[in-house]
């Protein structure tokens, strides 16, 4: 198999555009011409049929066929036969629980890390590509057996990263404070805050920030740093602090 290839998008829809409109050129350049069909995993939303219709319409407009895993009688076999995988956004807890319930964690890891098929995630689909879903913004509406996720990269991501609004009177914790609380726990990996419109492209041991907005990087015990599109994040792929199983 080839090296891992991941396109991890912060959000599915950017203000003023349609579904995946802001990243459609990235998708085409990422999937290329070898991929003919994409396996879609709609588990993050309750209405899987409607979700699959939306995704199918978009991917067909880009020249790719789309099969939704929820329409398959054997989800594991669907992953084994897939040419590329796309996991969409929604509720991260619901998504991860369904991945465990359908015995897909190991199968997706194998296809992506060993066989080298392309993996694309947006929002919740980006969350589950990382070490764990500890840094999701979602409510735990269901109870997955573990918060450990696919581990396609050795760090965490916070999609839809929001900067504090200086004019707001809201006194709840900012996103930055919540990530800092996560890093107060021992052995916690880096967290990449991806603003809406940002995405991370991983090809083998190279990771590059893409899109129209920047990202904020949180390393345990250090001040967060600001990064523009084009930033080389390859150093994050070196797993210096593997989590305890």
UniProtKB/TrEMBL annotation:
Reactions mediated catalytically: Dipeptidase E catalyzes the hydrolysis of dipeptides Asp-|-Xaa. It does not act on peptides with N-terminal Glu, Asn or Gln, nor does it cleave isoaspartyl peptides
Protein keywords: Cytoplasm, Dipeptidase, Hydrolase, Protease, Serine protease
Documented EC number(s): 3.4.13.21
Subcellular location: Cytoplasm
Keyword Protease: yes
Pfam families linked: Peptidase_S51
EC top class named in words: hydrolase
Coiled coil: none
CDD domains per UniProt: GAT1_Peptidase_E
Domain of life: Eukaryota
Any GO BP: proteolysis
Primary residence: cytoplasm
Alphabetized SUPFAM superfamilies for the sequence: Class I glutamine amidotransferase-like
GO molecular function ontology, one term from the record: dipeptidase activity
Function (record text): Hydrolyzes dipeptides containing N-terminal aspartate residues.
The protein, known as: dipeptidase E
Annotated organism of origin: Formicarius rufipectus
């Amino acid at each position: 198999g080839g090296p891992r290839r991941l396109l991890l998008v912060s959000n599915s829809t950017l203000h003023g555009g349609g579904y995946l409109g802001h990243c459609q050129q990235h998708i085409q350049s990422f999937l290329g011409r070898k991929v003919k069909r994409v396996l879609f995993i709609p588990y993050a939303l309750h209405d899987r049929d409607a979700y699959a219709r939306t995704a199918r319409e978009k991917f067909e407009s880009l020249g790719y066929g789309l099969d939704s895993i929820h329409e398959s009688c054997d989800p594991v076999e669907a992953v084994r036969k897939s040419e590329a995988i796309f996991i969409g956004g929604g509720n991260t807890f619901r998504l991860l629980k369904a991945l465990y319930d359908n015995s897909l964690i190991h199968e997706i890891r194998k296809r992506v890390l060993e066989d080298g098929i392309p993996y694309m995630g947006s929002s919740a689909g980006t969350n589950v590509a990382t070490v764990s879903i500890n840094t999701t913004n979602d409510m735990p509406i269901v109870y997955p057996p573990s918060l450990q996720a696919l581990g396609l990269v050795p760090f965490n991501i916070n999609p839809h990263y929001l900067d504090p609004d200086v004019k707001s009177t809201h006194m709840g914790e900012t996103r930055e404070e919540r990530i800092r609380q996560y890093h107060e726990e021992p052995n916690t990996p880096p967290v990449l805050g991806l603003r809406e419109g940002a995405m991370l492209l991983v090809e083998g041991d190279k990771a590059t920030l893409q899109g129209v907005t920047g990202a904020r990087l949180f390393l345990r015990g250090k001040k967060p740093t600001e990064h523009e599109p084009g930033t080389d994040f390859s150093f994050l792929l070196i797993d210096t602090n593997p989590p305890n199983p």
